[in-house]
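Try this one yourself first.
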């Protein structure tokens, strides 16, 4: 079973959409993207061709514009279950036959689900590309959704949801998402809960697939040695896919956060406590995206950040701490994440909040800005090394409606950001007075420390499975 973690290419604590490009760092401040061709088929499917003759291979990656946020309110995990079921059988092949068919070409079928979209992928040596694509397209376009496979996969998901409690960091992330977003679609765990997965039936999988797996809700990227015959094969296969006009559900409003709210989740015997705190972030389309990347790099998005220097290096309260803005189709979270000994939960929270308050009130210096900009510009070349990253990022940029100029002008736009810009976005988006705080630990050891900050809502870990 393949489950996507929070996001792709999370660099410096912030989603960096990057791509392969013809890079010239010798005095230039813009990038020229590697050549690619984009076509739109009659059924609405967009196909991106990124040629690369350096190696005899081809990769196929399709973005379906529906992710876990598309799950019905009572059926969290449906998007992930549907994507995982694709490789469990078509109308003509069972799971073993599919695995063996991909295996004979030295490859496999991969599926990943984020909050906003699903990605389906495979690769092939170029001389096997037509055969592999036929298999790949069959898995996507002609799923079998066998009842036994659905039952078996549901059991795996349920077992995974129960075991979640034994992985404190993972459990805290799921609990934090639920606490921060409340009734918003982003609150649901992508792999569901025991109750939500148990409720899913074959008809639900069929309905989800029929509504979301459509060419006019998808973009295909093809990378590698691409000849005209392969293009004809791709467009002939995908051209038969039927489009379907369906409107996406509107996102419910992000929950209002006025003042400081606290939740403690109890589990007996935990010797460390997981800490999450944060508030409403931004949409990916927000014009302050890059400026917030700079601000967050200074706060907690790099190893030399303020949070790391203070909480980890100076005070020794944790081994790892970071902050991030996870920009999505709708408002994602701004959060700080760490862990500490049960005995130092109160001290850790106190010091984080003091640091956030100072950051919000006083802002940053020119020296910090210069260092953060240099760090982000230094990361960029490493994130644009392969044609696959070009393909992936072109897919994601198109999903979010972001121009390719984001990539072309990345360096020059970073250079334009100044102290006033960064201090403005800190004031606007990072107010520590309006935040939620979650602690996952043993209440005998840590609860009183948290209660010193204000009234605390107490939950049992077992109730959140």
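Now uncover the answer:
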């Amino acid at each position: 079973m393949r489950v996507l973690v929070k996001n792709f290419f999370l660099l410096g604590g912030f989603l960096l959409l990057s791509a392969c490009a013809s890079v010239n760092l010798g005095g230039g401040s813009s990038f020229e993207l590697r050549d690619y061709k984009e076509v739109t088929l009659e059924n609405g499917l967009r196909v991106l061709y990124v040629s690369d003759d350096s190696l005899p291979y081809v990769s196929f990656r399709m973005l379906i514009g529906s992710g876990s946020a598309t799950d019905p309110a009572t059926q969290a995990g449906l998007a992930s279950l549907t994507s995982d079921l694709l490789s469990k059988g078509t109308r003509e092949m069972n799971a073993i036959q599919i695995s063996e068919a991909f295996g004979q070409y030295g490859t496999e079928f991969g599926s990943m689900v984020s909050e906003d979209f699903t990605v389906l992928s495979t690769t092939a040596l170029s001389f096997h590309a037509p055969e592999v694509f036929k298999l790949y397209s069959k898995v996507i376009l002609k799923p079998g959704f066998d009842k036994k496979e659905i039952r078996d996969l549901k059991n795996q998901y349920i077992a995974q949801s129960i075991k979640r409690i034994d992985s404190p960091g993972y459990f805290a992330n799921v609990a934090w998402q639920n606490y921060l977003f409340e009734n918003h679609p982003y609150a649901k765990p992508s792999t569901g809960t025991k109750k939500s997965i148990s409720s899913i039936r074959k008809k639900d999988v069929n309905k989800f697939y029929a509504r979301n797996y459509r060419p006019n809700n998808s973009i295909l990227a093809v990378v590698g040695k691409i000849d005209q015959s392969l293009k004809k094969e791709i467009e002939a296969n995908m051209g038969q896919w039927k489009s379907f006009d369906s409107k996406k559900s509107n996102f419910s409003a992000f929950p209002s956060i006025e003042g400081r709210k606290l939740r403690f989740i109890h589990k007996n015997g935990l010797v460390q406590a997981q800490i999450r705190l944060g508030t409403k972030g931004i949409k990916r389309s927000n014009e302050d995206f890059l400026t917030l990347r700079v601000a967050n790099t200074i706060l907690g998005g790099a190893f030399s950040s303020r949070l790391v220097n203070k909480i980890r290096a100076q005070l020794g309260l944790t081994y790892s701490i970071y902050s991030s803005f996870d920009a999505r189709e709708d408002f994602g979270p701004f959060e700080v994440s760490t862990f500490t000994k049960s005995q130092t939960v109160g001290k850790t929270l106190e010091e984080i909040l003091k640091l956030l308050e100072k950051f919000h009130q006083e802002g940053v210096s020119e020296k910090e800005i210069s260092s953060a900009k240099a760090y982000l510009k230094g990361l960029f070349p490493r994130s644009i090394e392969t044609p696959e990253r070009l393909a992936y990022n072109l897919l994601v940029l198109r999903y979010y409606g972001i121009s390719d100029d984001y990539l072309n002008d990345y360096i020059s736009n970073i250079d334009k950001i100044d102290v006033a810009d960064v201090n403005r976005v800190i004031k606007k988006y990072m107010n520590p007075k309006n935040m939620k705080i979650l602690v996952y630990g043993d209440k005998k050891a840590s609860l009183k420390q948290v209660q010193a900050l204000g009234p605390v809502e107490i939950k049992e870990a077992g109730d959140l499975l």
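Discussion: The chain is about 40% helix and 20% strand. Residues 1-27 have pLDDT under 50 and may be disordered.
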